[in-house]
Amino acid sequence: MNALDGLTSASSYRSSEAAASIALVVALIAADTFRHNARYAEAARLYRRAAGLAAQVDAPQIEWRAWGAVGETCDALDDASAAFDAYRKAMNVIDALWFALLEEDKLRGFFQDKAHLYERAALNCLRLGYHALALECNEKAKTRYLGDLIARRQKDPNTVPVSYTHLRAHETVLDLVCRLLL
Asked: Could you give the CA distance from residue 158 to residue 154 in angstroms, rounded to a whole number?
């Protein structure tokens, strides 16, 4: 583990982006291995390091996923507070990405793979008793999804979900939580 710490240490790679990229890959592989073997504390630590390295090499698509993985491993450790902190960091990265995408082509489908993260964040807020924050996460998720729908307005209507049944099939846990809180 000490060798991994030395190899993936962000401070030792500040001068070389290529070396930081290699360290990022090593940290992610090691973290995934620890997670697969239910060694969640070690996995969370390496995912945090990977998120820092991803920020260093300007890889926000990897950074938000690494923060999401930190949240999931903290969830596995029953540490709702640390999990929500990680989810919040991931959402901040996603927000920066979302606001930077002004072109409709790039915005199409942007939120599709991020919805799960917002659901987990809202559920952690509920576990911590932060009901208003849970609703905020839910509203942020719906705003991002609406942005996707607006960006798709130029698409062929046959490819955009329009039926109530289809929309219900994509209903999330957050929608149910929101209905229960009302």
From this structure: 11
